[in-house]
Recover the amino acids of this structure.
């Protein structure tokens, strides 16, 4: 049975807006970066393993679904200023990620202009839909997805460093990873705020999200399966990494018990991110 969600009171909405303003002030002061000036574009490594470029293309494609993410998430929270303004700002920051990755694919000559145009048109042949039907669950989903995304970039960066490096891509990944970590941090604080206000309703949505978690949009790509396998084979992200580096840190940070997040029956959800019962 679904636990009913308690609507946000004006006091909770005011706290969320304050959380956003703190996030925004810090971002303006410490985290703005320039695609044009902050990346050593003349230092791409021409002999980098093409398998790396393949993974970068995958991440770029996932970031390219931004119009679907923003256009579907924003209507859920349009009357909640802190959350709506956050999504607008989040959209701006995310928009730079696909541009930076796409620019690296071009400047490193790993992809041509024609190939980049094909990637873009392929992305928009399929539409991304919300994996959950309510704003509370999508907030939990975004928290999990942001930490998982940070890990994808962080682990890719480690692999590149082991394989000869690429100063341009290294800087791109550093800047993107800092953004993703800040996104996770904001959404974690937001989930905490909702847990404090409506523990049972929020926990129920978090439980659903954790047990059904999958990264957004990769499966929509024509060769999605192959791309997921490439990410797994380089040990950038798999179930074990999800469990120890996403699920467990989130459980610790939110001070919830693993048992509270177990699915109610083995058949309740089918997913790669399920928490073992
Ligand atoms: Fe991103
Ligand atoms: Fe992000």
């Amino acid at each position: 049975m679904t636990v009913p969600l308690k609507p946000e009171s004006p006091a909770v909405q005011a706290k969320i807006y304050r959380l956003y303003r703190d996030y925004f002030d810090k971002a303006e002061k410490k985290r703005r970066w320039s695609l044009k000036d902050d990346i050593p574009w003349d230092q791409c490594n021409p002999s980098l393993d093409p398998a790396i470029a393949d993974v970068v293309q995958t991440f770029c494609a996932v970031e390219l679904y931004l119009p679907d993410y923003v256009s579907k998430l924003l209507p859920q929270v349009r009357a909640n200023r802190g959350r709506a303004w956050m999504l607008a700002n989040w959209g701006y920051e995310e928009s730079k990620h696909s541009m930076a990755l796409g620019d690296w694919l071009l400047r490193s000559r790993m992809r041509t202009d024609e190939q980049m145009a094909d990637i873009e048109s392929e992305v928009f042949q399929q539409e991304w839909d919300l994996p959950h039907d309510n704003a509370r669950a999508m907030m939990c989903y975004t928290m999990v997805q942001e930490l998982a995304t940070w890990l994808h970039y962080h682990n890719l960066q480690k692999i590149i460093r082991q394989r000869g490096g690429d100063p341009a891509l290294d800087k791109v990944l550093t800047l993107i990873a800092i953004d993703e970590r800040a996104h996770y941090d904001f959404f974690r604080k937001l989930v905490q705020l909702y847990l404090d206000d409506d523990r049972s309703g929020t926990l129920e949505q978090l439980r659903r999200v954790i047990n059904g978690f999958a990264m957004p949009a990769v499966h929509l790509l024509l060769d999605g399966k192959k791309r997921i396998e490439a990410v797994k084979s380089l040990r950038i992200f798999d179930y074990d990494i999800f469990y120890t580096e996403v699920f467990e840190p989130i459980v610790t940070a939110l001070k919830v018990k693993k048992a509270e997040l177990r699915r109610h029956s083995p058949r309740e959800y089918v997913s790669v991110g399920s928490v073992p019962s």
User: Anything to note?
Assistant: The mean pLDDT is 92. Residues 167-197 form the longest helix (31 residues).
